[in-house]
């Protein structure tokens, strides 16, 4: 309004004939537009202009009502269905994954069982082999020992035989020696029986 | 009058219709209501037509808005409030699309009309009141009697509660309306500065850079406001619906 007034004053001072045009010219310069009148009928701030309220309400009711129907009958069931389907699919995939994991676990368990069995079997084979080897070596040793013992007894028997034979020879030698000694000493003859008795008596000492 | 910041809010008749002496003309506001519905419904319909399990980018946008509103409503009004999902979703999408369409130059912003936002707010509060009385009968009035208030203070608290309830349609509608109106006027004024300053030659053009930067920054801010106000409207709708579903729970 200040601009308008100033412009109007200027117009009147410069050229009086244009004075009646001033309000119209001033309006062009009203950049703030707050007091913008005459452009449209009611002259109120457009959003508060009640002349169009009925039409706004009717068209809002029509358009928003249609939008609500579209949303509740078409769009929301559709998006809900998509999300549901995806949710089911994910759950199904998870089930499948857990089933496969169970299978893998079972396979691992059976493999480990097999491995344990094989190990046990290996152990038992090794044990039997060891036992066999041991018993065989024991038997061999026993056989060797028995043979050795037999040889020892045979040797001992032979030694005893040789000994007894030697001892028997010792008696005969002693008798001969005694006979010879007696002959030399006393020059007489001594009977064999006497000599033998004497040797026996001395051998008994 | 292209420089008039309120010019953009003028309602013009396109097809004059008069029924029973009342003006029901198809105006530019009506045209943009139709455009809003067409754009929002068209986007949601076309992007979800593939119904793919692995969504495309655009399908993701539709699904995100669905899940965004669904979780907002579930948090705000509980699982019993989910029967209002179509309503809250429609309100959010309608207001968001209307606000965003309003960001186009020369487009009409229907949410800058107080009667439109007021009608939407009355729709929300009306739903709360009708459903509240339908579901809980007079028990709905427990809404105005908070728990654990001393007897002496009760009349005062009830009076405050009633006033705050009655002011809801006003605050809900004025918040959206005023934000859109003020934002568009500010944008227009700064953009107007650019035009009028650049009329003063080289120095003017140099000076016009500042309001131009401001206009660009404000445009970004207005996109934020456009989303934020739709969000706020939807959140408050959820809170009010919670009163209808669970009166006396606060």
UniProtKB/TrEMBL annotation, chain A:
InterPro entries: ATP_synth_b/b'su_bac/chlpt (IPR002146), ATP_synthase_B_chain (IPR050059). This is ATP synthase subunit b. Belongs to the ATPase B chain family. Its main location: membrane. The keyword Transferase does not apply. It comes from Sinorhizobium glycinis. It is found in: Cell inner membrane; Cell membrane. F(1)F(0) ATP synthase produces ATP from ADP in the presence of a proton or sodium gradient. F-type ATPases consist of two structural domains, F(1) containing the extramembraneous catalytic core and F(0) containing the membrane proton channel, linked together by a central stalk and a peripheral stalk. During catalysis, ATP synthesis in the catalytic domain of F(1) is coupled via a rotary mechanism of the central stalk subunits to proton translocation. Residues 94-121 form a coiled coil. Keywords: ATP synthesis, Cell membrane, CF(0), Coiled coil, Hydrogen ion transport, Ion transport, Membrane, Transmembrane, Transmembrane helix, Transport. One of its GO terms (molecular function) is proton-transporting ATP synthase activity, rotational mechanism. F-type ATPases have 2 components, F(1) - the catalytic core - and F(0) - the membrane proton channel. F(1) has five subunits: alpha(3), beta(3), gamma(1), delta(1), epsilon(1). F(0) has three main subunits: a(1), b(2) and c(10-14). The alpha and beta chains form an alternating ring which encloses part of the gamma chain. F(1) is attached to F(0) by a central stalk formed by the gamma and epsilon chains, while a peripheral stalk is formed by the delta and b chains.
From TrEMBL, chain B:
SUPFAM superfamilies: F1F0 ATP synthase subunit A. Its main location: membrane. It is a multi-pass membrane protein. GO terms for molecular function: proton-transporting ATP synthase activity, rotational mechanism. The chain crosses the membrane at residues 29-48, 84-108, 114-134, 143-167, 187-214, 221-242. InterPro entries: ATP_synth_F0_asu (IPR000568), ATP_synth_F0_asu_AS (IPR023011), ATP_synth_F0_asu_bact/mt (IPR045083), F0_ATP_A_sf (IPR035908). GO terms for cellular component: plasma membrane; proton-transporting ATP synthase complex. Keywords: ATP synthesis, Cell membrane, CF(0), Hydrogen ion transport, Ion transport, Membrane, Transmembrane, Transmembrane helix, Transport. The keyword Cytoplasm does not apply. CDD domains: ATP-synt_Fo_a_6 (cd00310). Pfam families: ATP-synt_A. Belongs to the ATPase A chain family. Key component of the proton channel; it plays a direct role in the translocation of protons across the membrane. This is ATP synthase subunit a. It comes from Sinorhizobium glycinis. The lineage of its organism: Bacteria, Pseudomonadati, Pseudomonadota, Alphaproteobacteria, Hyphomicrobiales.
């Amino acid at each position: 309004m200040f601009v308008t007034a100033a412009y109007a004053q200027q117009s009147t001072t410069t050229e009086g004939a244009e004075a009646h045009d001033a309000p119209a010219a001033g309006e062009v310069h009203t950049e703030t537009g707050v007091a913008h009148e005459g452009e449209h009928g009611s002259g109120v701030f457009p959003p508060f202009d009640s002349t169009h309220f009925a039409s706004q309400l009717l068209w809002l009711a029509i358009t928003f009502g249609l939008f609500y129907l579209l949303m509740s009958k078409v769009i929301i069931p559709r998006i809900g269905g998509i999300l549901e389907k995806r949710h089911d699919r994910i759950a199904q995939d998870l089930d499948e994954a857990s089933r496969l994991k169970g299978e893998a676990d079972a396979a691992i368990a059976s493999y480990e069982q097999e491995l344990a069995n094989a190990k046990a079997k290996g152990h038992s084979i090794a044990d039997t082999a060891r036992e066999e080897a041991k018993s065989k070596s024991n038997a061999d040793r026993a056989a060797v020992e028995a043979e050795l013992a037999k040889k020892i007894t045979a040797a001992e028997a032979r030694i005893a035989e040789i000994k007894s034979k030697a001892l028997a020879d010792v008696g005969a030698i002693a008798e001969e020696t005694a006979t010879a000694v007696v002959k030399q000493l006393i020059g007489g003859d001594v009977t064999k029986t006497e000599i033998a008795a004497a040797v026996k008596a001395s051998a008994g000492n | 009058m292209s420089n008039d910041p309120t010019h953009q809010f003028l309602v013009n008749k396109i097809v004059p219709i008069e029924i029973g002496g009342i003006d029901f003309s198809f105006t530019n506001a009506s045209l943009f209501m139709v455009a809003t519905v067409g754009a929002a419904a068209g986007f949601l319909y076309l992007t979800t037509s593939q119904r793919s399990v692995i969504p495309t980018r655009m399908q993701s946008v539709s699904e995100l808005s669905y899940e965004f509103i669904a979780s907002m409503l579930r948090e705000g009004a509980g699982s019993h409030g989910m029967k209002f999902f179509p309503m809250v979703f429609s309100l959010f999408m309608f207001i968001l699309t209307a606000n965003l369409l309003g960001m186009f130059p020369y487009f009409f912003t229907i949410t800058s009309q107080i009667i439109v936002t007021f009608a939407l707010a009355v729709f929300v509060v009306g739903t709360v009141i009708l459903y509240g009385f339908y579901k809980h009968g007079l028990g709905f009035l427990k809404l105005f009697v908070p728990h654990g208030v001393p007897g002496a203070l009760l009349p005062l608290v009830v009076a405050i509660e009633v006033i705050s309830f009655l002011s809801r349609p006003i605050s809900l509608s004025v918040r959206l309306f005023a934000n859109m109106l003020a934002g568009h006027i500010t944008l227009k004024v700064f953009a107007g500065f650019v035009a009028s300053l650049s009329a003063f030659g080289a120095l003017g053009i140099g000076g016009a850079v500042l309001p131009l930067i401001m206009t660009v920054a404000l445009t970004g801010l207005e996109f934020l406001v456009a989303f934020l106000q739709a969000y706020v409207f939807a959140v408050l709708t959820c809170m009010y619906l919670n009163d209808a579903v669970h009166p006396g729970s606060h």
